Backbone:
């Protein structure tokens, strides 16, 4: 049987039968992170997804991973049922796992070895409930010797070099910021809200400028009327002197 025939006949399931998140917090954070990253890379050649089966060994449907969130730079975006590494030709640049009770051992032990083996550049773990990881945010960068921990910066943030991002906990909440601008990533709804707020701010500034202009015009008109009144008074006074 040829390789092509084998590839056609082998079935690669679209689900591993497990839930997306163990709790509301885990599910919501997975969705939120995917949303923020999709918003950041909207319109670019970047594939962002999560909770999608990633098959890494052709011909063996038992060899798969299910990253909570992953990003592939310089890669065709769009909808996929599964991600076959040998067809896509590129591993994720970065993976984020939202750790829970069910996944903590896999996330911290088994998955890093597999992600390193397929060439995932950076790997992050986040525990939104602060129950299973100490500290609740960790990062690893792939080297020739495997993954090495990403050292926190002066304020405790972790730099994701692959995506030019900074991940940090602010008041216990994960915030992902653009490394160049320092601006936080927003979800689609957040970006729309920010755009509306910016538009409202522009309109308010325009209204304030118009009010100032109107006030200035009123002052000019009042000054002009006062000058005309003074001129009339002086003319009247001169006329009275001339007739006396």
Residues:
């Amino acid at each position: 049987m040829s390789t092509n025939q084998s590839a056609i006949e082998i079935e690669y399931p679209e689900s591993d039968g497990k839930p997306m998140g163990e709790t509301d917090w885990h599910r919501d954070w997975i969705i939120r992170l995917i949303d923020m990253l999709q918003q950041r890379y909207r319109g670019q050649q970047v594939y962002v997804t999560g909770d999608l089966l990633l098959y890494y060994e052709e011909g063996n449907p038992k060899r798969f991973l299910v990253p909570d969130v992953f990003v592939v730079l310089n890669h065709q975006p769009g909808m996929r049922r599964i991600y076959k590494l040998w067809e896509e030709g590129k591993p994720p640049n970065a993976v984020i796992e939202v750790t829970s009770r069910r996944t903590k051992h896999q996330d911290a032990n088994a998955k890093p070895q597999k992600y390193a083996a397929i060439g995932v550049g950076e790997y992050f773990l986040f525990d939104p409930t602060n129950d299973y990881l100490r500290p609740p945010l960790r990062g690893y960068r792939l080297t020739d010797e495997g993954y090495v921990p990403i050292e926190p910066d002066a304020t405790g943030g972790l730099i994701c070099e692959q995506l030019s991002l900074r991940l940090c906990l602010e008041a216990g909440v994960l915030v992902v910021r653009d490394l160049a601008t320092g601006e936080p990533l927003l979800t689609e709804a957040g970006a729309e809200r920010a755009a509306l707020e910016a538009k409202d701010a522009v309109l308010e500034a325009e209204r304030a400028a118009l009010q100032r202009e109107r006030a200035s015009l009123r002052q000019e008109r009042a000054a002009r009327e006062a000058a005309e009144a003074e001129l009339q008074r002086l003319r009247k006074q001169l006329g009275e002197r001339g007739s006396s």
Observations:
- The radius of gyration is 31 Å.
